[in-house]
Amino acid sequence: MLLEPQALLSGVKNGNRLMFTLCYDRYHRGIYLFVLKYVRCEALAEDIVQEVFFRLWCNRRGLREEGNLAALLYAMAKNLTVNAIRKHKIVETGNVRYYDLHEGRQEPAGESDSDETMRRLRLAVGELPARQRTIFNLKIYESRSNQEIADMLNVSVNTVKVHYARTMKHLCQRLKKN
Fold it and tell me: How are the residues of the chain apportioned to helix, strand and coil, as percentages rounded to the nearest 5?
């Protein structure tokens, strides 16, 4: 039984549990893969997907029936993913990825001195010129787009791209030393 997204949205809005289940069945896998692409942790991605659908159900009465269900779900997933990245301080530089989940540290395979690498990363970020450091922080820690950063700093998108590329080159070089 393949229902139109508008019928699913209307059913969810009206509290129909079957429609909610069908909505979940239709969209959960795609949203999970979308979130997993950014957090790269299956448990965290599943938690975020569950939170998306939990919030959909809790806020169902406020849904607009003419709205786009898929766009709503993916927007919710994006916002929850950005919040999770901030909360868990997920940082990615080259092939090195660190994050703290539930008070436990997870490290990439073969990387036994993550504290030292993180210390070196922080030092390298601290050495950046102010503009590059600002762009790095906005892009990595606040998940801002190039356009958002350009608007905030009153520069062109190309300037943001150039500064970010220089930043990543500098950080990679600094982390490769020793």
Answer: 70, 5, 25
